[in-house]
Design goal:
binds zinc ion, binds fe (iii) ion, alpha/beta, about 750 residues, DHBP synthase
Length: about 750
């Protein structure tokens, strides 16, 4: 006896090969009916034998295309209509209601196969299908159809058009479908030459890379800079060209096996690296004997840090390049100059990169939306996003709260913004440091594009309390009702939003800088908060930041400030080795500032405490990239100092580190290794997190605890604190798919505004 069902699916079910998939499993289960894309999702009518219907529903859930995401599936019994086939119906028109836009998807295995066998796509470096290929980077408007993408200028050949309109084909309605005869192509520029044949391009690039040359390569979301990761000179010249950039570079490896030679991976890391999102995953690098018989990566790649930012190929061209060159690993880092956004303009690449480097690889499809590679790490077996971009954006964060029409401007240094539509939050890609003019332009442009793409009607705007942030200035000029939110409150709210917590929690926010409501610079904060309000219960003791922002670039200034704070006014403190390496005049100036309290804003920042200890121990006195000192301090940890820690003092709501600074000075005097001091310091932070959390729990009768802020990108602290707190019986919520750094702030701002606004 046949039966019928009406199935309504919502979520990311369009532009990801969902209808062809439904069609296929309907045929496999001998069902008849229809499948249709509508503005509110996908609707299926299916008729067949009850057991086949059941099997079909199971397949819908279990075998869905990798990039799709079903958020709800509503199944109802329906009357039999007597369909005699299963058909894909034409899309219903899209109204103001929008469907989701898929992030870009790494090339799939089927396409890699086709690249070797399909005559019109042999070695075609832009091969794609409904399961893979560019999405967000090429979309200009909705609905997601070829004319509203940057593929519109390429006219499909008859073969491609046939596949595009054949429901049984893997490329049915794959908007970027193309082949050697009709799609985009690469060109390689060097000196005054231009090569257009793919084989010649691959041969030239292989020899350039092996000769130690640096090539600017147009990727999915922007230009990248590539060189042989084993060649120290090549890595250095790449770094020089980027104008003194100090931060570690990401490395693309030819395969999982080649990563295995250089770094440790657990299953979670392995799976994440291989996922269609293909992020850069920060791994523990192998060292010493662990690298026996392995050619080592150039030291400059990771700036002397022990981690490796590894990723796997995600564009067809990457596969071809590794195959032809036989290389095992290439540096592949964002193509920009210092703090500028990743470059997407071909003209600029040909001007600026061709002047600074050896060659430029272009292709003739425009990148519309710029996205960097996403970056993450795995801590306590969970994925932790550090930079949310390619492969993630523009997937929304699903909420239970109405956030419609709210624009959240974000923070300043690691900016992202966030827009509310219904109960979904659209978090932008990583934008970068707004203080850079080009980055600020990118911010404004992306904001306008998101508003248009997702049909948002702005009703209000929310920003950080800091009046000098360019995002705050942007908000003030937006001509919308304006709300200001405290930085660390937003950090905690962002993690609450990720876990859909809407209640009072203990919030621990540790980071570098955020303006507090008393006008001081906060960053070591224990808050009691819900979305609407917060109360500051404990914080790190205020110390002076000699020279303000200058102290951030020169951790030694914070070390001198902590010594001053510990050993008293007028006394310069013990004569530690790190002091001898500082310019005498500058040191005198800083001490003068501290004595007189001139240009010395107060801070309770955790980041500045980490800076101070990094400098005290001689690990890092001045920095060349953001958060360098805490990273080097963490890297120095000697892991077998499991238990030892220093003392601190809590009085009122203040945590004083003077006892610890004294003990560290003693340890240095006794010649204790910096790595041991670093371990004991980190353990101290974990001890105090646990101790204070327990006393807040007793005072406030709360057991849910949220950790957020950039300092929780420290694996040691996040990993151990989470475990210790769980062992103490807390329900611990930590950032996973939303960055704990300022890249997550805008989501928190959005939620706070949503709960505070009057309806
Ligand atoms: Zn594919
Ligand atoms: Zn074609
Ligand atoms: Fe922050």
């Amino acid at each position: 006896m046949k039966t019928g069902r009406r199935i309504h699916l919502k979520g990311l079910v369009q532009g990801v090969g969902f209808r062809p998939f439904v069609y296929r499993i309907a045929l496999e289960n001998e069902l008849t009916g229809t499948v249709e894309n509508r503005n509110d999702g996908v609707v299926i009518y299916a008729e067949g034998e009850p057991e086949n219907i059941d099997k079909f529903l199971k397949d819908l859930e279990l075998k869905a295309p990798p990039a799709s995401k079903v958020l709800s599936m509503n199944v109802e019994k329906s009357d039999l209509s007597g369909f005699n086939a299963f058909i894909i119906k034409e899309s219903s028109s899209v109204s103001a209601e929008v469907t989701l836009v898929s992030p870009d998807i790494a090339v799939c295995d089927d396409c890699l196969e086709d690249m070797k066998s399909q005559p019109h796509r042999l070695d075609y470096p832009f091969i794609n299908c409904t399961n893979c290929g560019p999405r967000f980077t090429i979309i200009k408007d909705l609905p997601y159809d070829r004319p509203s993408t940057t593929m519109s200028v390429f006219k499909m050949c008859d073969k491609c058009a046939g596949e595009y309109s054949d429901v049984s084909n893997r490329r049915f309605h794959a908007q970027p479908v193309a082949c050697n005869n009709c799609g985009p192509h690469y060109s390689l520029y060097y000196n005054s030459e231009r090569i257009n044949r793919l084989d010649d391009i691959l041969a030239a690039m292989s020899s350039f890379l092996k000769e130690g040359k640096v090539i600017a390569v147009k990727g999915l979301g922007g230009y990248f800079l590539a060189c042989d990761a084993f060649n120290p000179d090549a890595v250095n010249s790449l770094r020089d060209g980027k104008r003194r950039e100090g931060k570690p570079f990401a490395v693309m490896f030819s395969s999982l096996e080649s990563i295995q030679k250089h770094a440790w991976m657990n299953d979670t890391e392995r799976k994440w690296l291989q996922s269609w999102r293909r992020p850069v995953v920060l791994l523990d690098g192998k060292k010493g004997d662990e690298l026996k018989g392995v050619q080592e990566l150039a030291g400059g790649v990771s700036s002397g840090l022990p981690g490796i930012g590894a990723m796997l190929p995600y564009m067809p061209f990457h596969y071809l390049l590794f195959e032809r060159s036989g290389l095992d690993a290439i540096v592949l880092t964002s193509g920009n100059f210092s703090d500028e956004p990743i470059l997407i303009s071909d003209d600029m690449a040909l001007n600026e990169f061709l002047a600074a480097y050896d060659a430029v690889l272009c292709y003739d499809r425009e990148i519309y939306n710029r996205v960097d590679d996403s970056v993450g790490m795995v801590v306590n077996d969970r994925e932790r996003i550090i930079r949310r971009s390619r492969g993630y954006v523009p997937s929304p964060v699903e909420l239970d709260i109405d956030v419609d029409g709210i624009i959240a401007a974000g923070a300043e240094l690691v900016n992202s913004f966030c827009l509310g539509k219904g109960s979904q939050a659209f978090l932008s890609q990583h934008i970068g440091d707004l203080k850079n003019l080009e980055t600020y332009e990118f911010y404004k442009e992306s904001m306008a594009r998101f508003i248009k793409l997702f049909r948002i009607t702005p009703k209000m705007i929310v920003c950080d309390m800091h009046p000098d942030y360019l995002s705050s200035k942007y908000a003030a000029r937006a001509g919308l009702p304006l709300m200001e939110v405290q930085h660390h409150h937003a950090h905690i709210a962002s993690c609450m939003a990720e876990h859909r917590l809407d209640e009072k929690v203990i919030g621990i926010a540790f980071d570098g800088v955020g303006l507090g409501d008393d006008g001081n610079i906060w960053g070591g904060e224990f808050l009691l908060c819900d979305y609407e309000n917060y109360r500051r219960l404990y914080h790190f003791e205020y110390v002076m930041m000699p020279g303000g922002d200058k102290a951030t670039l020169n951790p030694w200034r914070m070390a001198v400030s902590y010594l001053f704070n510990t050993f008293g006014a007028g006394i310069t403190g013990p004569d530690l080795p790190f002091l001898s390496r500082i310019d005498r005049n500058e040191l005198r100036l800083v001490r003068d500032m501290l004595n007189k309290g001139i240009n010395t804003p107060f801070t309770s920042s955790a980041g500045r405490l980490f800076d101070a200890v990094a400098a005290l121990t001689g690990i890092c006195s001045s920095t060349s990239f953001h958060a360098e000192a805490p990273m080097r301090l963490e890297a120095a940890i000697v892991t077998d100092v499991q238990e030892g820690h220093y003392d601190y003092k809590i009085s009122g709501g203040e945590i004083s580190f003077s006892p610890m600074i004294k003990q560290i000075v003693e340890d240095i005097g006794q010649g204790i290794a910096a790595g041991v001091i670093s371990a004991k310091f980190h353990n101290t932070i974990i001890e105090l997190i646990v101790e204070i959390s327990i006393s807040i729990r007793e005072q406030e009768k709360l057991n849910k605890l949220v950790l957020s802020g950039g300092s929780f990108q420290n694996r040691y602290i996040l990993g151990k604190a989470e475990k210790r707190l769980e062992a103490e019986g807390f329900m611990v919520y930590t950032p996973s798919m939303i960055p704990s750094n300022d890249g997550g702030i805008s989501l928190g701002q959005l939620l706070i505004a949503a709960k505070r606004r009057k309806h």
